[in-house]
Amino acid sequence: MATQPETGSLGEQIRRLGPWHQDIQLTEEFSTGQVFSPDGRLSREANRNVSLLTLRDNFVEHILHVYPEGLRGKRFLDCACNAGGYCFWARELGADFAFGFDIRDHWIEQARFVQQQRNVAPTDRIKFSVCDLYALEEKRLPQFDVTLFKGIFYHLPDPITGLRIASELTREILIFNTQTGWGEPDGFLKPGLEDTRALMSGAYGLNWRPTGPATMIPVLRWLGYRTAKLMFFRQQKNNPDGNLGRMEIWASKVPGLLDKYETQRTLFDE
Ligand SMILES: C[S@@+](CC[C@H](N)C(=O)[O-])C[C@H]1O[C@@H](n2cnc3c(N)ncnc32)[C@H](O)[C@@H]1O
């Protein structure tokens, strides 16, 4: 039988701040995915229809392919950072500084809570801000070495402008991960509408999905990337209509940086 967390306890605070999308280890005992259910995991229904994902190990493994010594000396930017998981993991990998922003108070409140409570890895030299991607330029931030642009492209009414804003702040690597269309000729951005009230959604209502990786090649070249590699492009699970996919591309402004990185396909190289 499920037990109830004590009032004021860490478990109770985690629950109060839900729903959570990112499972982040806080202490030896608790992660943000912790709940007092028989199997210790949060179901989608109990999490207000938000999927809870464990993302750390995959991120760490892939960063270490490109930067075998870790991120020492690097500045890390996470666009639409949600609960800030990737900023904390970038600091675990030795990043000098990490900055994460998200348009929703809900997620930045979680990120700040994690920053206060996490004792299994460094939480200093990380900043979070409630900010719309389209307002990021107003902050006049110095450049970053590694930029994560994950789960945000397909929540924007003008995704090319959004990606340009992030790319102008990027010196080395862009990690680009987006939902896509599936089963249609590659080479287009397909418009759609989304519910702006959903916590995981965009704030504008209009969105665009690329129909495949070829769509992004001229865009990434135009933004100044010299090499791009496709990590994956696959049909999305749990999509009853079968018309959605997901892809991840790593693009570099520095020639050679992705050379040793074995991936599905090189999209362009110089
Ligand atoms: C699908 S989630 C992805 C979260 C995170 N990047 C990840 O991969 O786990 C989309 C996120 O984008 C945020 N978001 C949507 N529109 C935004 C905007 N214009 N500027 C900043 N964040 C935005 C949402 O609040 C939400 O946290």
Assembly state of the chains shown: single chain
Please give the share of residues in helix. Answer: 10-25%
Main sheet overview: 8 strands, mixed
Domain count: the total is: 1
Q: Order of SSEs, N→C?
A: HHEHEHEEHEEEHEEE
Brief sketch in words of this structure:
The chain is α/β, with parallel strands linked by helices and about 270 residues long. Helices cover about 20% and strands about 25% of the residues. It has a single domain (about 55-270), classed as Vaccinia Virus protein VP39 (Rossmann fold).
Please explain how this structure is put together.
With 270 residues, the chain is α/β, with parallel strands linked by helices. It has a single domain (55-269), classed as Vaccinia Virus protein VP39 (Rossmann fold). The protein has helices at 10-16, 56-66, 85-92, 105-117, 159-168, 213-222; strands at 75-79, 97-102, 126-130, 144-150, 170-181, 189-193, 206-210, 227-235, 244-252, 265-269. Helix 3 links the parallel strand 1 (75-79) and strand 2 (97-102). The structure holds S-adenosylmethionine (SAM). S-adenosylmethionine is lined by residues 21-22, 80, 82, 102-104, 107, 132-133, 150-152, 155, 200, 202-203.
